[in-house]
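Ticket #396: bound-state structure for S-adenosyl-L-homocysteine.
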Amino acid sequence: MTQLVLKPGKARSLARRHPWIFAGSVDRLDGRARPGDTVTVVDSDGTELARAAWSPESQIRARVWSFDPQQAIDHAFFKRAVAASVARRQTHPWLAGQQGVRLIHGESDGLPGVIADRYGKVVALQLTSAGADKWREAIVAAIVQATACEAVFERSDSEVRGREGLEPVTGCVYGVLPDGALTIVENGVRMEVDVVGGHKTGFYLDQRDNRLLTGQLAAGRDVLNCFCYSGGFSLQALAGGARSVVSIDSSAPALASAARNLALNPQLDASRTEWCEDDVFKALRSLREAGRSFDMIILDPPKFAPSAAYAERAARAYKDINLSGFRLLNPGGILMTYSCSGGVGLELFQKIVAGAASDAGVEARILHRLGAAPDHPIGLAVPEGEYLKGLACQLG
Ligand code: SAH
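RESOLUTION: The complex was predicted; output attached.
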């Protein structure tokens, strides 16, 4: 088998079981490999270390499938790895009864470049690396076997594929999608999931537990949900007994989907909701000028910093909305604020939020530090897998 030979001293991160081999660590390839082919990774002294997928176009030149250099990477390997990932979700009580669950979370589940989300009988699949793309058929077969799903819909249209030299791919790769809207019930609220055209694979599963917490904290409160997308936080707040919920998003299709979700839940009092198609940055200022105030504000913006290089610009945007948020809160009010930027760590995010509170002239304390739900685990060896962080802060 073709060998990827590391430069001297470049095996340390592999020894810590970090699965990425950067271009700068690669001395040479002994033999030939096409994108996605499996190569044996060897130290500069020839010691075999791992089996990895070769990706010549990416700065991450190879991603490890197995730290056992003898491991055959074949259909049986994917069958075992996928089954293990699916089985891990079945042991967690918060996930056991859920219809929408992330089954495979890439590197953190030992399957670099593979994302699989189950929505009832449908699995949405995203392949973002050359190796994952190469093994599509084996991965799909393994998912079908492990889940007995009726359809697998591929949503490999993330822009990160470009960095691996891969074109976007979307479409049904197994079975047929059921007629009509696909829906899941999440903690008592029915939500539609658009696996074909929605964000990510159709839904933000990572915020499931934080939506539930929002509902628990929202009772009797006037709530403002910024960047509401399909209304997940809004509907959980209503279900939790919020007095009123104002929701803002700049996307008309997102608000249309939120309206459908509201209609799917006749148990909720729609008259308590107000939906605004607007830019949050502007809307927060207008609300202040109009003298409005709230008892709970949710800020769940899109990724402002795709990488650390954008951290400074992103920090200004986070500061801006958090400052406006604090200013709109009533005494005792709660700000639920998030960042899903990998380039902004928790420490920096907390500093930004603290700066916003200070500029707003309010005293606030952190009630909860929040992250992604447990079906989005973070491999201890792969801290890059951590992206979503949140703070629930209450005014004094
Ligand atoms: N909280 C949601 C996910 C939010 S995704 C959930 O739990 O499902 C981010 C949303 O922000 C998207 O719906 C996008 O349309 C919206 N958005 C992005 N920039 C915006 C802006 N400047 N003003 C208002 N909405 C914006």
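RESOLUTION NOTES: The chain has a mean pLDDT of 97.
TICKET STATUS: resolved
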